[in-house]
Amino acid sequence: MKNLYLRSMLAAACAATLAACGGSGGNLYLQVQVVGLAKDGLILQNDGERLPVTAGLSTAVFTKLVKNDDRYDITIAQQPKGAVCTIINGVGKASSYSVSTAQVNCKTNTYLLRGTVTGLSADGLRLVMGSNGTTLLAGATAYEFSVDDGAAYGISILAQPTGLKCRFQGSSSADGSDTVGTMGSAATTAATLDCTPQ
Question: What is the pLDDT of residue 2?
Answer without folding.
Answer: 42
